[in-house]
Amino acid sequence: MSRGALAGIRVIDFGQMVSAPFCARLFADYGADVIKVEPPGGDAARAAGPFPGDAPDPEKSGLYFITNTNKRGVTCDVGTEAGRARFLRLVKWADLLIENHTPAQMKAWGLDYATLAEVNPNLVVVSITPFGQTGPYSGWNGYDLNAYHLTGASSRYCGRPGEMPLEHGTFAADYFGAVAAAAWAMAAVYGRRHTHGGQHLDVSSAEAIAATFVGGQNIGCYAQDGKFDKRTGVGMPLGAPATILPCKDGHVWMLALEPGQWNGIREVMGNPEWADLDLFQDMFQRAQNADFLYSMIEEWTMQHGKLEIMEKCQAAGAPVAAVFTVAEVQAHPHLEARDYFVAIEHPALGTVRTLGAPFKLPASPGGPGVPAPLLGQHDAEVERELAKFEQEQGGAR
Amino acid sequence: MASALPLKGVRVINFGWVWAGPVTGQTLGFLGAEVLKIESRARVDMTRNLPPFGEGIPGPDRSLSNHACWAGNGSVSLNLKHPEAKKLALELVAKADIVIENFGPGVMEELGLGYIELHKVKPDIVMLSMPAAGLYGPLRQVRTYGLSVTSTTGLDSLVGYKGGGPVPVENAFTDPFVGIFGAFAVLTALHHRDATGHGQHIDFSQQEAIMHIAGPAHIDYVLNGRVGGPKGNEHPLGGAAPHGVFPCAGDDRWISIAVPSESEWQALCAAMGNPPWAGEPRFATLADRLANIDALHAALAGWSAQFDDRELAATLQSHGVAAAPVLNIADLLHDPHYRARGTFVEVIHPLGFPETIYGAYVKTSRTEPDVQPGPVIGRDNDRVFLELLGLSEQRYRELKEEKVIY
Asked: Domains of chain A by range and CATH?
C-alpha cells in the first residue's frame, strides 16, 4: 500500500459496533497503522450482520467488514491481568486510542484515562459514547437510537406531526459522533507539540448533533423568544415545492427555492395552466397552498420516472433529485467514473465491493485496500513488532 | 491555561458559505486555528438574513442561527468582484496554511482563486473543496441543497415509517456532518504537508462522504441484493427488539427504548413488573421478538403511555435498560445533562445583545476551546489589512471607500 497522509500515526481501535471502529477506519483509510483490539469473542459487529444468505458467521459480517478495512486485528481479554498488561503495552506504543465503552466499564477494567496517561503521557484518548463521560446521563446504558432521539433532531425535523419521531434508518448518531471524534482527535494528535502531550477527548454523539445540527439552527431562537417548532412531515414548510413526492418508479425530491428554479420546473412540466395562478407565484405563497400545489405536481410526477424528472429539472436549473435507492446509487455512472467503489478480496467473504474513501487526497491517496481482519489474525505479527519497539526503547534508555 | 490549543499557528482562509464550509472553519477555530472567513456586504450570505434576529432587530449581523453555526470563524470583508480584492485575497492565501470552499465546481476558478492560482502564491497550500458530488464526474454540476444531497446517497430512501415511502428530513443534517468531516480532511492533508512539504487540493464529494452513513444498507445490498427501505425506528440490522420510540403521558412525549440482549430484555420485563404478555413464547428470544415486532411494540406502547417520559427513562435505566426521553427544542436548553456539560452557552455579541450558541461540542481535558460569538462582517479587517498585510492607513481607507474592502 502506498504511504498515506497519516503514515507514522499508530492508532488503537478498542471499539465495538459502529462509532469508535468507524472513527478508527477513517484513520486507517488515510494510512495510519490501526490495530484493532477485540475481546476473545470479537467485536459485537461480528454478530450484527448482515451476513451473506443471512447465515451468521463471525468472519462474514458485512457491518464488521465495512467498518474495519485496512486495520490489523489482535485479541486481548482486558478483564484478565495478563490481557490488561498486554493492552497497556500497546497503549505505550500508540499515538491515539479510540474507544466506545461506558465510562464505568473502562474504570472497572482499570483503563480509565488517568491510568492510560500515566503509561503514555503523549497518548490522545478519544471516548465516543451516546451521552459522554460527564453529566447525569453519563452512567446510562444507551445505543445509537437513544442518542439520536436525545438531540431534538427527530422531534424537530423528522416524522409526521402526531406520529412518532424518526431516526434515519441507520446508525446516524454513531456515524456523526465518529466523524466529530476523528476531526478533534486528528487535531489533538497533530497539535501535541503545542499542548505538551496527549489529552482525553470526550465525545457524546448526542451532544455533537444536539449542538451543531439542532442547536445551531434553533437554540438561539428558543433562548431569546421562547418559541420553537416541531416536525411537519414536509421537507420545508416555509417554502414550496420542497418535499419528497412519489413518481412513476419511486420518489423525487422536488425543490425550488428561487424563482428561476420554479420556472425551470414549470417548463419541464409543460407550463401547465394551474402554475400561472397568482397563488403560485412566490415560494411563500406556494407554501401556504402546499397541499394543492403538491397534488398538482404529483399528478405530473406520477407519469414520469425519477431519473427522467431529475435530469430534465436539473437541465432546467432546478435542484431536483431522484431519491436513489441503495441499488440505484451503486449502479450510478458518476460513482463509477470517480472510481469510488473498491473491490476487496476477503478470505471468508470472497470479493466484496465496498464504499471507498470518503474524500480524495490526490497527493496521498486513501481508501480501503486491505480487508477487515479475521479474529486475532495479526496477534503474532503485532506482538513481534511490539517486542521490537520495546527492545529499542530499552536500548535507548 | 498553560497549554496552547492544538491548532495554534494554523491560519485558515475560509471562502465557505451557508452552512457546511463555515462549520469546517468553526471546528478548526474551536481547536485554535486562526480562521478568516472571506465575505462581503456586496453579496451577503443568505444565512446572515435568516430570522430570528438579536433583540428582534433585523440585520445581517444579528441572525441568531447564523451566529451559532458560524461562531469560531473570523471575518474579513472583500468584494471579490473587484480585481484589487482578488489580489488581497491571494496575499492572504500566501500567508495561510489552509483554504476552504464549498461552492460548486469551477466557481473558485471563475473568481481567479482556483487551486492553480493559490498554488502559485503558496506552493504547499492545502485546499479543501466540498461540492455536492465532487470535482469531476458526470454529476459534478448537480444542483442540490443540503436538504436534498442525501437523496443521491441512498440515505433518504431509508427514512420513514415502516412500509411507507420516504419521509423528508426537514433540514440539512449532513451540512454540519460534512462540515466537521471537512475539518478531519484538511488536518490529514496538513499532517501530510508537515511530513512531506507538499500541499494538495482535497476533492471532498459530499455524496461520497454521506454514503458511509448508509453503509449498513449498502453492504446488505452488496452481500444479499436486498434494497432497504423505511422501517421506522427499528434496528438497522435487526439486532434488537424492542427497538423504537414509544408514547408517554402528555402531548408529543416519547421515550426511546433499545433492547439488543437477552439480559436487557429480562431487565425490561422486570421493570414492567413481568406482565403476562411479556412472558408469551412469541417474545421469548430475540428471533421471536423480531418475528413479532409489531405486536411487541404495540404492547410496549400500551404500557409506556401511562408514564412521564423522564421518570420512565430513569426507572428503566435503574434496571439497566437503554432508554432515554425524546427531547424537543425547549427540552434541549433545559435538559440537566446538556446544562451540566455546558452544551449551550450564552455570550454577549459585540453589538451588545446576548445570544445563545453552542460551545465546544467535544470536551477536551487539556485545552479549553476558544468559543466566541458569531463574527460581525469585517470583524478582523483592521488587524488583517493593517498588520498582517501591512497596508498603509491611507490605502486601507481608500480601499474601504472604493468598496473593495466591503
From this structure: 10-213+338-396 (3.40.50.10540), 242-325 (3.30.1540.10)
CB contact under 8 Å between A164 and B153, yes or no, is no
**pTM metric for this prediction:** 0.98
| Residue partners of A256: CB distance under 8 A and separation at least 6 | A241, A242, A262, A264, A265, A283, A318, A319, A320
Per-residue model confidence as pLDDT tens digits over B162-189: 999 999 999 999 999 999 999 999 999 9
Contact state of A199 with B366 under an 8 Å Cβ cutoff: yes
CA distances from A327 to B142, B226, B326 (A): 20, 8, 32
- By CB atoms closer than 10 A (0-12, 13-18, 19+), residue B203 is buried
Q: Is A145 on the interface with B (CB under 8 A)?
A: yes
CB of B312 within 8 Å of any CB in chain A? no
B216-258 confidence digits (pLDDT tens): 999 999 999 999 999 999 999 999 999 999 999 999 999 999 9
Question: Length of chain B in residues, anyone?
Answer: 406
How far apart (Å, rounded) are the C-alpha atoms in residues A171 and A173? Answer: 6
In CATH, the number for domain B11-204+341-401 is 3.40.50.10540
Using an 8 Å CB-CB cutoff, list chain B residues near A118: none
Residue A221, all three cell numbers: 431562537
Using one digit for the tens of pLDDT, what is the confidence trace for B314-333?
999 999 999 999 999 999 99
In sign, the C-alpha dihedral spanning B65, B69, B72, B77 is negative
> Which of A54, A66, A133, A164 is the best mutation test for B, with the most CBs of B within 10 A?
A164
Q: Which residue has the cell 476487496?
A: A344
Q: With residue A263 as reference, give the H or E element that holds it.
A: helix A259-268
Residues ≥6 apart with Cβ < 8 Å to A397: none
Q: Is the ipTM of this complex over 0.85?
A: yes
What integer is the mean pLDDT of B71-80?
97
